[in-house]
Protein: 3-methyl-2-oxobutanoate hydroxymethyltransferase
Organism: Luteimonas lutimaris
Amino acid sequence: RKPLTVPALAEAKRGGHKLAMLTAYDAGFARAFDDSGVDLLLVGDSLGMVVQGHDSTLPVTVDDIAYHTACVARGVSRALLVADLPFQADATPERALDASTRLLQAGARMVKLEGAGHKLEVIRFLVEREIPVCAHLGLTPQSVLRLGGYKVQGREDEAARKLRADASAVADAGAALLVLECVPSPLAQAITTDVAIPTIGIGAGPHCDGQVLVLHDILGLQGGHRPKFVKDFLAEGGSVAGAVQAYVAAVRDGSFPDAAHSYA
Ligand code: KIV
Ligand code: NA
């Protein structure tokens, strides 16, 4: 099967083809996801929580992401592998370039970073040096100390305007993909119309160009608080492969997320 390329992402958006993305941290799940037609795999710094057991993503290091990226890369044949720049690995353009080079050499084909503001310079710096970048706006978990928790973003008019401006700015800076986390559906829809690059939602409603969920969440493994956008696909899929196929099918035909898994 032909690998999915970076230019193919914008083509998918133009063609109205929804993109299905999942996080993966090892070769076994990566292979299963790739076989089930998942378009994009993310080695997320969520691994700090779901794999390492921390209560935030802040302890995750570039070494951690590089290790899991190498593991995942061995299981991938078609999917486009994206790796997160962990906390402060993108604090300066030079640090981001060093970390991104390591992640691409470990097998990633795109890096993801959170925020706009001073990160716009980082995005431009990486893209000019041939490193594809995925931006991430809305609820940015690396901002948890400032935010005081994990909450829906962009609910007030002023915050919504700021988020919309930031989305256009990261696209203008050269990002090829944009993750929107925990934002009201109408705002994610407006952003999706504004920008030419695909938006990938997580708790951002059905109008994004694609969706992403965390591996553990689609298998119903999350303990304690379960965010509204999480759906246990194992319950309906009956097996791991069935769960992934149900997720991919629901993303493609637009039936996930429905209103019950979105913020109005
Ligand atoms: O780290 C992660 O898993 C992520 C996704 C939730 C988008 O950034
Ligand atoms: Na992340």
